[in-house]
Amino acid sequence: RAKSTVGQTVCFFESGMDESARERRKLAMVLRHAQERGEFELLYQPQRLLRTGEVSGYEALLRWHHPALGLVSPCQFIPLAEETGDIIVIGEWVLREACIEARQWPVQMKVAVNLSPVQFLQPGLVDRVRAILVECGLSPNRLELEITETAIISDKLRALHCLRQFKAMGVKVALDDFGTGYSSLDTLHSFPFDKIKIDKSFLLRAEDSPQALAIVRTVLALGRSLSIPVLAEGVENERQLRILQSEGCDEAQGYYFGHPAPAPSLALPKAVNS
Ligand code: C2E
Ligand code: MG
Ligand code: MG
Ligand code: MG
Q1: Which of 39, 98, 172, 254 could form a disulfide with 194 if both were Cys (CB 3.0 to 4.6 A apart)?
Q2: CB-based contacts of 202: which residues, under 8 Å, 6+ apart?
Q3: Best of 59, 146, 233, 270 to mutate for ligand 1, by most ligand atoms within 8 A of CB?
Q4: pLDDT of 265
Q5: Pocket residues: Cβ below 6 A from ligand 1
Q6: Residue 183: which residues within 8 A CB-CB, separation 6 or more?
Q7: pLDDT for res 8
Q8: How far apart are CA 50 and CA 250, in angstroms?
Q9: Which ligand has its closest atom nearest to the C-alpha of 62?
Q10: Ligand 4 mean position to 220 CA, how many Å?
């Protein structure tokens, strides 16, 4: 098995299935104790309104500092935690931590928290979120939950009920990674999402792929016709920003505006027109 370190993110390239399964089981066992050992950290990435340039909120992104492996990417350990069910406990830690930290920010900005489909399908989710907000003293309208379509397809009626309850509480819900997976017009039309996030893969290819650009345009048109604001993920340079501005995109997020960073550096976001 080859292990390579790209930036600070550890990736594994598995050769044998057996060894791979064994490795995963080992990683899952260590992951179980990561939170109590203080190995988790939340980073925050700014989201910008393109019309005014102001920061509308920050997305909380989980990091695992493994004592031996270094920084393990959420793309690796979130699926694992979903398999074992540990995502429920981890997700609750993320939600509580994000609410506690957001409460301490000098500005009353929104905090966006990713919810795994496994978490979303957990009975009593809405009550748990409500209880955590009360416990942390965070106003519900400062919380935005990011879910993917995977979370809603298995039980659409229940999902709709949850979304309505969140809406009634004042908690916002964004549809994450739109354009990948099970995206359907029906979902967009029947669920009261507060925001659509176009998956970063489209903007990252938009400059040299007419197809990717067409998808960005289509999602923007869709958002406009349904009156749902659209946020583009993965803005890495000025050219991509110009595309979004000329296509009338509402919000954007990406390395161009700021990498995910620990809470203390939140005060210094990059200006749109500087
Ligand atoms: P996501 O929710 O779609 O988050 C966006 C990902 O894109 C993040 O990766 C972010 O660091 C990355 N990103 C932001 N700007 C750019 C850019 O300009 N270019 C490129 N190439 N990438 C950019 P990250 O932090 O590695 O997270 C990956 C995924 O892991 C997230 O995708 C989300 O699905 C999941 N995840 C992260 N934190 C949590 C969490 O607390 N709970 C759950 N359930 N899932 C999480
Ligand atoms: Mg997200
Ligand atoms: Mg996303
Ligand atoms: Mg994603």
Answers
A1: 172
A2: 179, 212, 215, 216, 219
A3: 233
A4: 58
A5: 45, 61-62, 73-75, 78, 91, 94, 114-116, 146, 176-177, 200, 233-236, 254-255, 260
A6: 149
A7: 40
A8: 6
A9: 1
A10: 18
Is residue 30 exposed (0-12), middle (13-18) or buried (19+ Cβ within 10 Å)? middle
What token pair was written down for 125? 């989710």
The candidate with the shortest Cα–Cα distance to 177, out of 201, 152, 154, 198, is 198
| Interface predicted TM-score (ipTM) | 0.98
Judged against a pLDDT cut of 80, whether residue 161 lies above it is answered with yes
Rounded distance between C-alpha atoms, residue 271 and residue 77, angstroms? 33
For the stretch 36-89, pLDDT in tens is 999 999 999 999 999 999 999 999 999 999 999 999 999 999 999 999 999 999
Q: What is the pLDDT of residues 170-211, one digit of tens each?
A: 999 999 999 887 777 888 888 999 999 999 999 999 999 999
CA of 147 to the centre of ligand 3 (A): 9
